C-alpha cells in the first residue's frame, strides 16, 4: 500500500508545484525540493522490503494492474529519486530568473514520477503507460528552451515512438499467448516457450529499451537531446532516464525470460548473449572515440553516456554473476558521475553566459574550486581511476570478460577506457586548467544550492569507490531475487576465488604513497606563490589573450581518428526521413483535405466492395 | 609470524629498492649516453647530488594548490604502484590488486603531473600533456592486446600468478610462450618509457620539457624521482610478464637493468619523430603483431 501512496504523491506533485508557482515562486521552489525529497526518504525506509498491490482492474481485458516493490525496482527507484532530488536542487540556482518556470518544475517532477512508476510497475501495461508518460514529459523538458532544442526533442520523440511500437507489439503478443501481463506470472508462463518465440519477444523489447538506452545503431537521438536540454535535466536524462532501458533489459532478460531460456537462444558465437555483448562492445568503442572529437562540453558527455551504456550491456549480456553485478553496478555508478559532470558543465554555463565550447574556456580552477573538484571526481569516476566508483564496476566487467575467455570484448572495454581518458581530460583541462581568458577573470563560484549537489555526488563517487560492498550488497539481493547466483562481496574486497581486488588496501597504498612525498614536500622550504600568468616561456612568451592554445587539444590525433568515426547511422536516418517525407508528399496528393474527394473515395470503395461481393457470390 | 615479517619487509623494502634502482637508472643513463656520444659523462651518483640540491633549494615557486597537490599525487601514485608489482619473491599486496589494478593505478601519476602542469598558463605544458595522452592512446593498443594474450594464456589476471607460472625454465618465459605479444611490447617499450624516438611529450629543445616546464626546486626534484620510478615500474612490469619475473630479488633486478640498457641504446641513436607518426606507428606494426599474438593464443587455447 505504501508504494501506491508514494506513487500517488509523486504523480500529483507536478500539479501542486505548478499551482504553487502561480502564487509565489519561492513557495514553488521549496515545494518542489520537498516533494522531490519525499521518495528519497520513503524509499530508503523501504530498503529490503518487497510488496505487491493491485490498484485497478481492466474489465475488458480481464487484467489486473498492479504495483510491486522488489530488489531491482528499489535499486532503480532509489537512483531515480536521488538524482531527481539533486537536479531539482541544482535547478533552484541554475534556473533562477528564467521564464516558464512553473512549467519547467512541473515537467521535471512529472518525469521523475513517471520513472518511479516504471520501476514500481508490477505488470507490463502499467509499465507501458508510465513509459509513455516518461517519453512525452521528457519531450516537454528537452524542447523547453525552444529553437534547436525543439528539433532535438522531435528527433527524440520520433525514435521513442518507434521503440514504443516494438514494445507494444511484444506486450500484445505476450497477452495473447500467456493470457496475463503480470511480470511474476509471465516469468512462469514463459518457461515453456520455444526459443524462437522468446527471441522474438526479446528482440522487440531490445528495440524498445535499446532506443532509450541508446545502443548502437539506435543512439542518434541522444547527443542532440542531451546537449540541447537544460543542464539539470541533462543530468537526469543521461544519469537515469536513459538507464530505464537498462532496467528494462534486466527485467526482461532475467525477470521474465530467465537465465535458463537465455542460454538456449543459440550457441557459441551465434547466441543472443554473445551478439548482444558485441553490440555493447561496439557501443563502447565508437561513441567513445566520437566523444574524443567533440568540442561542446555537453555533447562530449552525451557521447560518453552512450559509450558507458556499452559497458553495462556487455556486463549483463555475458550473464555471469560477476558480469551481471558489474553491469548493474556500472549503471548506478554512471548515474552518479555523469549526473555530476552534467551539473559541472551546467555550473560553468551558468557563470560564463552559457559557454559550452571547450575551445573558448580555460583556467577556471581557481575561480570555481568546488566545481573543479566535482569535475575532477567526475572524470576520475568516468575513467575508472582506482578509489572511484567507476573503477570497481569496470574491474568486475573486465575480469569477467577475461575469465570467460572473451579477450576481444575485454579489449574493446579497455580501449574504450583509453578513449575516455583522452576525451574527459580534455573536458577537465580545457575548462579548468591552462590559460584563463580575460573575459572570465572575474567569474565567481556558483551559489551554495548548486554546490551542494556537486559535493554530494563527489562524496558518493568516493564512498562507493572505497566501500563498493554497500551498493554491491543491494545488487546481490537483485541477483538472488531472480534466482541467479549472487556475487558475494565484503565491504571492500571481492572473494579470493573471484580475483584480487581490495579497495581498502589500494586506499592504504595510495595514502601511504602520497605521505612520503608530502612529508618531503613539507620539509623543504615553503614556496612563494606566483600568478598563473607568470610562466617560463623559453624566450618566446605567449601574449596574453591573443590565442587559445588548448583549441583542438588533440589535433594530430583527430587527423588519424576522424575518418573512422563519422556518424553514418545518423546520416542514414536523415536520408530515410528525407525520402519518406517525399513519400508522404505523394500520399498528400490522395489525401487532399477536400471533403468531396473523400466522399468520392468512399463511394468508389463501396462500389469495389459491392462488386467484389457480387463476384464472390457468383 | 614469518608471513607477517615478510609482509612488513616487503612494504618497506619495495619502495626503497625502487627508489635506489631508479636513481641509479638516471645516473647510468647519463653515463651510457655520454659514452655513446664519446663524452666522459658525469659520475654515477650525479642524480643524487642533483635531487638533494633541488630539495635544498632556497627558493621554490608555486602556482597554487593544484600545482602542489599534483606533484605529490604523481610521486605518491608511483610509490603505490610499486607496492603492487612483485619483485622476485617480494609481493606484499598480492591480495590487494591484480594486473588490472596495476594498469589503472599507473594512471594516478600522469594524472597528478598533468594537473600540476595545467595549473599555470604555459602553452608548453599543455602541448606536452596533449602529446603524452596521444602517445599513450597509441601504445596502449598493442600493450593491452599483448597483456590480454598473456592473461588468457596463463588463465589468470593475478600478476603474482603470471610471474610464478614462468619460473620453471627459460622456455617458460612469456617471451617464448607468447612471442608475438612480447615483440609487440618491445616495439612500444620506448614509447612507454618516453625514450627517443618517442620522447615528444617532454621534448626539451622543442617545448621546454613539456609538463615539467614550470617545475623548479622541490617540485622538479619530486618530478624527477617520479620520472625515474615510472621507468622502473614499466620495466618491472615487462620483466614480470614477459621475462619470467625473478627467482629472487637479484635476478629480477638484473633483468630490469638489462632491459633498461637496451632502451638506453635505442634512445641514444634515434632522432625524435612527430606525434602523429608515433600514433600511426603504434597502431600499425605493434598493434598488428599483438593482435596476431592474441589470435594465436585463442586458437591454441581451443
Outline the structure in words.
The complex is a heterodimer of chains A (618) and B (302). Chain A has 618 residues and is an all-alpha fold. Chain A has a domain at 568-617. Helix content of chain A is 71%, strand content 3%. In chain A, strands 1-2 form a two-stranded antiparallel sheet. In chain A, helix 6 runs antiparallel to helix 8 and helix 14 packs antiparallel against helix 18 (448-466). The longest helix of chain A has 31 residues, at 148-178. The termini of chain A are far apart. The mean pLDDT of chain A is 85. Chain B has 302 residues and is mainly α. Chain B has one domain (2-301). Chain B has helices at 2-36, 46-55, 65-83, 99-105, 108-118, 123-154, 159-164, 174-177, 179-193, 204-207, 217-242, 249-269, 275-301, and one strand spanning 60-62. In chain B, helix 3 runs antiparallel to helix 5 and helix 9 runs antiparallel to helix 11. At the A-B interface, helix 15, helix 16, helix 17, helix 20 and strand 3 of A face strand 1, helix 3, helix 4, helix 5 and helix 6 of B. Strand 3 of chain A pairs parallel with strand 1 (60-62) of chain B.
Adjacency order of strands in the biggest sheet of chain A: 1-2
Q: Averaged pLDDT of chain B, please?
A: 86
What is the radius of gyration of chain B computed over CA atoms, rounded to a whole number of angstroms? 19 Å
**Would you report the number of β strands of chain B?**
1
Globally, the shape of chain A reads: globular
Topology order of chain A in helix (H) and strand (E) letters: HHEEHHHHHHHHHHHHHHHHHHEHHH
Biggest interface, chains and residue tallies:
A-B, 77 and 83 residues
Number of helices of chain A: 23
Distance between the termini of chain A: 64 Å
Amino acid at each position: 500500500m505504501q508504494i501506491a501512496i508514494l506513487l500517488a504523491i509523486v504523480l500529483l506533485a507536478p500539479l501542486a508545484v505548478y499551482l504553487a508557482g502561480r502564487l509565489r515562486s519561492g513557495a514553488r521552489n521549496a515545494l518542489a525540493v520537498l516533494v522531490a525529497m519525499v521518495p528519497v526518504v520513503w524509499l530508503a525506509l523501504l530498503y529490503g522490503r518487497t510488496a505487491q498491490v493491485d490498484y485497478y482492474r481492466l474489465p475488458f481485458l480481464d487484467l489486473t494492474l498492479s504495483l510491486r516493490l522488489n530488489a531491482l525496482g528499489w535499486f532503480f527507484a532509489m537512483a531515480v529519486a536521488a538524482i531527481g532530488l539533486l537536479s531539482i536542487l541544482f535547478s533552484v540556482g541554475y534556473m533562477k530568473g528564467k521564464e516558464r518556470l512553473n512549467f519547467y518544475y512541473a515537467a521535471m517532477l512529472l518525469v521523475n514520477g513517471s520513472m518511479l512508476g516504471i520501476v514500481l510497475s508490477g505488470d507490463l501495461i502499467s509499465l507501458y503507460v508510465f513509459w509513455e508518460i516518461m517519453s512525452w514529459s521528457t519531450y516537454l523538458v528537452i524542447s523547453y528552451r525552444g529553437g534547436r532544442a525543439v528539433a532535438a526533442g522531435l528527433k527524440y520523440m520520433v525514435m521513442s515512438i518507434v521503440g514504443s511500437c516494438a514494445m507494444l507489439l511484444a506486450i500484445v503478443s505476450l497477452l495473447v499467448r500467456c493470457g496475463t501481463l503480470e511480470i511474476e506470472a509471465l516469468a512462469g508462463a514463459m518457461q515453456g516457450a520455444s526459443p524462437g518465440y522468446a527471441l522474438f519477444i526479446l528482440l522487440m523489447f531490445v528495440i524498445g529499451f535499446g532506443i532509450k538506452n541508446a545502443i548502437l545503431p539506435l543512439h542518434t537521438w541522444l547527443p542532440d537531446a542531451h546537449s540541447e536540454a537544460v543542464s539539470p535535466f541533462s543530468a537526469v536524462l543521461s544519469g537515469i532516464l536513459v538507464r530505464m532501458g537498462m532496467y528494462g533489459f534486466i527485467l526482461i532478460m532475467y525477470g521474465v525470460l530467465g537465465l535458463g531460456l537465455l542460454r538456449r537462444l543459440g550457441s557459441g558465437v551465434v547466441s543472443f548473449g554473445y551478439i548482444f555483448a558485441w553490440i555493447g562492445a561496439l557501443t563502447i568503442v565508437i561513441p567513445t572515440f566520437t566523444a574524443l572529437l567533440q568540442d561542446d562540453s555537453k555533447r562530449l558527455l552525451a557521447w560518453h553516456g552512450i559509450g558507458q551504456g556499452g559497458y553495462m550491456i556487455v556486463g549483463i549480456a555475458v550473464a555471469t554473476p560477476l558480469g551481471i553485478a558489474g553491469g548493474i553496478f556500472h549503471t548506478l555508478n554512471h548515474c552518479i558521475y555523469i549526473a555530476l559532470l552534467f551539473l559541472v558543465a551546467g555550473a560553468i554555463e551558468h557563470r560564463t553566459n552559457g559557454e559550452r565550447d571547450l575551445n573558448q574556456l580555460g583556467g577556471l580552477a581557481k575561480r570555481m574550486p568546488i566545481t573543479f573538484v566535482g569535475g575532477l571526481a567526475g572524470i576520475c569516476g568516468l575513467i575508472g581511476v582506482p578509489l572511484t566508483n567507476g573503477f570497481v564496476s569496470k574491474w568486475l566487467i573486465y575480469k569477467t570478460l577475461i575469465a570467460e575467455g572473451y579477450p576481444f570484448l575485454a579489449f574493446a572495454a579497455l580501449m574504450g577506457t583509453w578513449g575516455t581518458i583522452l576525451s574527459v581530460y580534455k573536458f577537465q583541462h580545457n575548462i579548468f586548467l591552462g590559460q584563463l581568458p580575460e573575459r572570465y577573470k572575474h567569474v565567481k563560484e556558483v551559489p551554495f544550492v548548486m554546490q551542494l549537489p556537486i559535493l554530494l555526488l563527489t562524496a558518493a563517487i568516493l564512498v562507493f569507490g572505497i566501500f563498493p560492498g554497500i551498493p554491491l550488497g543491494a545488487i546481490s539481493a537483485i541477483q538472488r531475487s531472480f534466482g541467479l547466483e549472487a556475487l558475494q562481496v565484503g565491504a571492500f574486497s571481492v572473494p579470493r576465488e573471484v580475483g584480487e581486488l581490495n579497495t581498502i588496501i589500494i586506499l592504504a597504498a595510495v595514502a601511504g604513497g602520497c605521505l612520503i612525498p608530502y612529508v618531503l614536500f613539507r620539509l623543504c622550504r615553503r614556496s612563494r606563490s606566483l600568478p598563473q600568468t607568470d610562466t617560463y616561456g623559453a624566450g618566446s612568451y605567449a601574449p596574453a589573450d591573443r590565442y587559445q592554445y588548448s583549441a583542438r587539444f588533440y589535433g594530430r590525433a583527430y587527423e588519424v581518428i576522424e575518418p573512422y568515426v563519422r556518424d553514418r547511422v545518423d546520416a542514414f536516418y536523415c536520408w530515410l526521413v528525407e525520402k519518406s517525407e517525399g513519400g508522404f508528399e505523394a500520399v498528400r496528393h490522395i489525401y487532399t483535405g477536400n471533403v468531396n474527394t473523400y466522399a468520392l473515395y468512399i463511394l468508389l470503395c463501396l462500389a469495389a466492395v459491392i462488386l467484389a461481393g457480387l463476384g464472390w457470390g457468383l | 609470524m614469518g608471513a607477517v615479517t615478510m609482509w612488513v619487509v616487503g612494504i618497506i623494502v619495495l619502495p626503497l629498492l625502487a627508489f635506489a634502482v631508479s636513481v641509479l637508472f638516471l645516473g647510468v643513463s647519463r653515463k651510457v649516453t655520454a659514452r655513446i656520444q664519446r663524452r666522459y659523462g658525469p659520475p654515477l651518483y650525479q642524480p643524487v647530488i642533483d635531487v638533494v640540491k633541488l630539495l635544498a633549494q632556497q627558493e621554490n615557486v608555486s602556482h597554487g594548490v593544484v600545482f602542489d597537490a599534483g606533484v605529490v599525487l604523481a610521486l605518491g601514485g608511483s610509490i603505490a604502484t610499486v607496492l603492487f608489482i612483485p619483485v622476485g619473491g617480494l609481493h606484499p599486496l598480492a591480495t590487494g590488486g591484480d594486473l588490472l589494478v596495476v594498469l589503472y593505478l599507473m594512471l594516478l601519476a600522469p594524472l597528478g603531473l598533468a594537473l600540476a602542469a595545467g595549473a599555470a598558463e604555459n602553452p608548453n605544458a599543455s602541448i606536452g600533456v596533449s602529446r603524452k595522452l596521444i602517445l599513450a592512446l597509441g601504445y596502449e593498443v598493442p600493450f593491452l592486446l599483448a597483456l590480454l594474450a598473456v592473461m588468457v594464456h596463463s588463465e589468470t589476471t593475478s600478476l603474482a600468478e603470471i610471474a610464478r607460472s614462468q619460473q620453471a625454465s627459460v622456455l617458460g618465459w612469456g617471451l617464448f610462450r607468447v612471442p608475438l605479444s612480447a615483440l609487440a611490447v618491445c616495439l612500444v617499450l620506448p614509447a612507454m618509457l618516453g625514450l627517443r624516438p618517442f620522447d615528444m611529450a617532454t621534448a626539451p629543445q622543442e617545448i621546454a620539457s613539456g609538463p615539467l616546464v614550470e617545475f623548479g626546486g622541490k617540485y622538479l626534484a619530486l618530478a624527477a624521482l617520479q620520472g625515474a620510478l615510472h621507468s622502473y615500474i614499466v620495466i618491472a612490469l615487462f620483466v614480470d610478464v614477459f621475462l619470467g619475473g625473478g627467482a629472487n630479488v637479484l635476478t629480477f633486478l638484473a633483468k630490469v637493468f638489462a632491459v633498461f640498457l637496451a632502451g638506453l641504446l635505442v634512445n641514444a641513436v634515434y632522432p625524435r619523430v612527430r606525434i602523429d607518426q608515433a600514433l600511426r606507428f603504434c597502431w600499425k606494426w605493434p598493434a598488428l603483431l599483438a593482435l596476431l599474438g592474441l589470435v594465436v593464443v585463442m586458437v591454441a587455447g581451443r
